[in-house]
Amino acid sequence: MTNNDDQAFEEPPPSYEEATGRPSITHRPQDHPEVPPPLPLRNASSAAAASTKPGASAAAAAAPAATTLSPTAPAAPRPGPAQSFSQLPTSAQQTRINRQFPPLLNLYRDPFPGALQRRYFIGEHQNTPLYAVGAWSGWPVVQSSLVLHNGPTEDYAALATVSYDSWGRRMDVTLPPLRGTTSSDPIAVLAPGMMTAAFRFRVEIPWPDENGGITWRREAYEWRRSNSLAVAGLAGSTTGWKLVRLTNDLPPGGVTVAGSGPPSRDGHEVVAVCTNAVMSMTKLWKFCFLGTGVSGALGERWAVMAVTTGLAIWDREHRRH
C-alpha cells in the first residue's frame, strides 16, 4: 500500500562506505558455511564475525542478553574502519543483509570531555566502541549540533549530522546523498508541540518495483514517549521512547522477525526503543531494534536515521537538564 506522499527513487542510496569514502569491514559469503557456526561472544581474541540464526525472536532481541545476537568483528589494537553487520535471512534465500548496527547498542561517555565539545561513542560494550558521537554546545542554541561518525573516533567522516532549530521546534538530520546525487537535503524531524507529543520524520526505505527491481519510497515514523514492556526490557529507565512505523505494509526480505515488533496502541508496529541507562557512570543510553527494524528489511539508511534521531532526542533532553 502506498499513498500520495510516498516518493520513489530510480536508484538506491549508496552504501555508507561509498558515500563517506571510507571502507567498512565486510563479510564475504564464502567465509561462512551454509550452516552458520555458533555465535561467539565479542572479545579481543575472536578471529571472525558470526551470523545470527534464522528465526530469532524479537523478544530475544529486546532483552539485554541479546547482545550476542549481533555478529561483530574483534576489537583492533587501534581504531580501524567502521564495522558492517550482517544477518542471515531465511534459510531458503541464503543471502545476506549488511547491517550498520547490532540489534542492541549503548551510548557511553568519554571520561575526559572538553569544555564545549562533549565526546561519546556507541557500541555493544564500553571496551569495543563502534561509532564516535560528537555533541557541540554552542550559543545560540541553533549553533548546537550532533555528529555520528563512521568509525570509533572523530577522525572518521560523518555518517550523519543533526542541527537544532533555535526555537526547539525541529531538528535537521543530514545523511549521505542518494546514489546519483552530489548533495543531500536535510531530513526534518518535527519536535513535539501543541498538535503532537511525538518526534516525526520521513525517510526512504527499499521497496520492490513492478519489474522485479528495487525502488525507494519515503515512509513516516514517530518517536513516542513510552513506558511499555519493550522499553522496560532494556533494563534502563522505565520511561523511554518507542519508534513507530506508521504503515502496516510488510517489506520483503529480511529475517523471520520482520513484522513481529510489538504493536502500538493504534496498531502500528514498534521497530525500535530507547531509554536512559541507570546505575552507571559511563553508560548513558540504551537502544534496541525490534521486529521489522531488526530484520534489516528497512535498509541501512533507515537504521542510521533511527539511531541518529534517538541520539538527538537523548541529547535534547540532556541539554535541558
From TrEMBL:
Region annotation (Disordered) ranges: 1-93
Organism expressing this protein natively: Coniella lustricola
Protein name as catalogued: Uncharacterized protein
Biased composition (Polar residues): 83-93
Compositionally biased intervals (Low complexity): 41-73
